Prior knowledge:
By secondary structure, the chain is an alpha+beta fold.
Amino acid sequence: MPGFKAMKGNASGRDEHWSALTDDDLLNRNLTTDNPETLEGLVTQIPDRHKEAHVEFKYDFRGQDRAELHCVHGHHAHKAGFVMNVGDQRFLVGWICGKTIYGEDFERYTKAYDQAVERQNALRRAKQIRDAIDPFTYWLAKIPHAEVFPLYNAVRLQWIGLIPWLYDQLRIKCLKHGGHLSFRENVQDMEAEQQDDTRYQRECQIHAKGGPKPQPSRKPIFKEGQKLLCQLPAKTFFENTNNLREEAIKVSNALFSQIPALERALKQGNDIESLIQMIRERLTKLDTIISEAREVEDLFQPGILAAIAEWANHSDNSKRSYKAGLTEITMTSSKGEFIVSIPKNYRTPNRSPIAEFRNALAGLYTV
């Protein structure tokens, strides 16, 4: 374009604009605009200090049904370009003039502007995760000291020390039978009874024609079957002998190391995929630990305890007997009564902070 030369030599001045912005300035700044004509301070003539201008926004309306904009240089129509800024004045420059006059490649921008966009994205992601980190780490710091973990071990020791036969049997059921409690019993065989009714009616018809007297219908008819009482909701409690508190400490320490590393990577614009994957794995492990602690509460439900007591009374061939209460199970033998119960202060931690932090991590890919 006559009268103007590409101002690549002035790039350093424009670069300084972006590098001089503070994090807060950049976080609160829009780098693209959907309506450049309404921006404050927009002029339609070339400013005197246009050579000092920097790219403030980009816009691209190509393929959209909207009026074209006009470049300050020659007022030619275009749908893609830059909003340039110098002092308090803004002006529109089409993408061709942006490249030929200002040395700004519309597809790639200048290096400084590109870095500003990347820096802004990094800052926004860091802020987003920062807002989630504080409440999560506050919750996480309490987990290793949660009272539920020593209580979990104490409940297991009750089972092993007070009613060892039943504990061993329930452990076998969990390890080999999916936690299903059932026993054999004679149940009424409705199908066999229906078949015998059919046989009797047929013989009656034959007898009416002079045949032999029919054999009476046989009722009730029983067969051996399985009575399913319940499926134990505490498979891990009986299958494993792990120390939940030690596992919780290990996972918490790992997260307290990885989360600050994630913050640093976000601020520096580094790759975070592998780090997020490790954090997700730790969150899953922590969720599993708390779920295992929750099994004790599920185990000490009245219906489950009643099913265990019924199964034990049917299956224990000794002179022991079992009785279920609302939150306890009692074994009575010649040596006395032995009660296994859940402590009144047994409370598993709320797991919702894990889900909320997972959601925050997922959001990092949508910023």
